[in-house]
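Page 42, continued from yesterday. The earlier attempt failed because a stray header line got pasted into the input along with the sequence. Redoing it now with the clean sequence only.
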Amino acid sequence: MEITISVSHRGTTHPLSLLPDSTLAYLQTRLEELTSVPPDNQKLLYKGKKSVSPDASILSAGLRDGAKVQVIGPTAEELGGLQAAETEHQRKERILRERAQKGYAKVRSTGRASASDVQFTFHRIEPLPHLPEPDSARALLTRLANDPAIRHVMRTHQFAVGLLTELAPHEQPHLLGLNVNAGQAIKLRLRTDRYDGFRVYKDVRRVLCHELTHNVWGDHDNNFKELNSTLNKEVAEFERAEAVGTHHLTAEGFEPTYSALEAEAQEYVLGGGGQASGGSSNDSPEERRKRILAATMRRLQKEEEELEQQCGTTQATGRSD
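This time it went through. Structure tokens are written below.
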């Protein structure tokens, strides 16, 4: 059974529901989402408070159903951006330097999990337990984390993320994604506004690619756009390569099937059939594939511009979109 507490910060009160075995560290993470005060700077005041470690349960910390908690502390913005110990330029230079020193990981492995599989991955997956159907949310997060194309780009670019979790629509309705502290955590909008289902998988995955780009670049500048475009292209090409060897019968014989992304582009450009603009009935399967993939990337670029307006990463680090 959940317990509900009332959280107060600078005159604003937030109701918060938690499971009794939730840890104090998890509570502090939830409080950061509500107040923008990082856990290290949070001072919690409530009746019956007990001094315990962050791994202890909230019950051990003295919290009970109906408790009133006051949060005191400066926000990340007031501290100059999530307590960063280095400037943005230094951070970017360090990340790029470390990536260059480590070299690129192997793209694929048919044997046991390699060191890159273990290192360049999502190390924790946590849905929000106070929202409906947390098991379904966990299944969607797990599917994203194990998506072959996502795993491919993470190994290729040596991305590691501490926590993959979700954003609650009612708490941050204007956001689709958020990358906290260059990969410490990535939060994705999984659910519909009315909590009556989950968003389309491919849309959530595209947001994930966007937020992974923030592991390296904080602002939506040209460096960000170039890397994000690269990730989307690699996802599309990976899925196309996965389809190689699978064929379907046409009037002209057998030819390779389109990837799921290319099939979507075909429907988008052709309206479900016919020839794409500028195409010819004499085009080879490879020429049609390239044209469809190009159309996909143009559409993705347009959608990416819209996504930038609903990305919370730059706001969270004290920068504006």
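Notes: The mean pLDDT is 78.
Reminder to self: strip header lines before submitting.
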